[in-house]
Amino acid sequence: MTSVAEQSTHAPLSPAQMAERARDIAGRAGEWIHRVRLSADGRWYERLHQDGDHEVWLLSWMPGQSTGFHDHGEASGAFAVALGTLRERRITVDRTVSAGQARGFGPGYVHDVGNVSDAPAVSVHVYSPPLSAMNRYDLDDDGRLVLLAAESAEDW
After folding, report:
1. Rg (the chain; Cα; Å)
2. HEC profile of the chain
């Protein structure tokens, strides 16, 4: 079994590779469960690993917490649900992502992820290359995305 802080390959990972890495880490809760915090004030998150080719984040979600529509700039990514259930919403598609499941995506992918259940959830997120920018969106009256804000890594 590889550790959470894996060796860097200095090459971007594919969405499928990131989904597998996120699912693998999510399945090894004994290595990270002691880090998790639950906060009614907002999603809790902690970076578990970062190198030149990817980064790994651990997030907790209380019922009702969500990201809002956003992308990950030029980074590809994936997330796996470790505990609980999350909903991934795109403009035209809603998906339930349950413990043990993962979603991978390429750059420019816009989604809203949230906990619509009655119990806390925990997820593992992998981005390659590491996040340097994110864009936040809202939907207009016609259901089209409208850019609200552009953020850089210094903002989070």
Report:
1. 15
2. CCCCCCCCCCCCCCHHHHHHHHHHHHCCHHHCHHHCCCCCCCCEEEEEEECCCCEEEEEEECCCCECCEECCCCCEEEEEEEECEEEEECCCCEEEEECCCEEEECCCCCEEEECCCCCCEEEEEEEECCCCEEEEEEECCCCCEEEEEEEEHHHC
The rounded distance, in Å, linking the Cα atoms of 92 and 27 is 30
Q: Is 130 exposed, middle or buried (0-12, 13-18, 19+ CB in 10 A)?
A: middle
pLDDT, block means (10 residues), the chain with 156 residues: 50 94 98 97 96 96 98 97 98 96 96 97 98 96 96 84
Give me the pLDDT at residue 12, please. Answer: 86
The span from the CA of 133 to the CA of 156, in Å, is 10
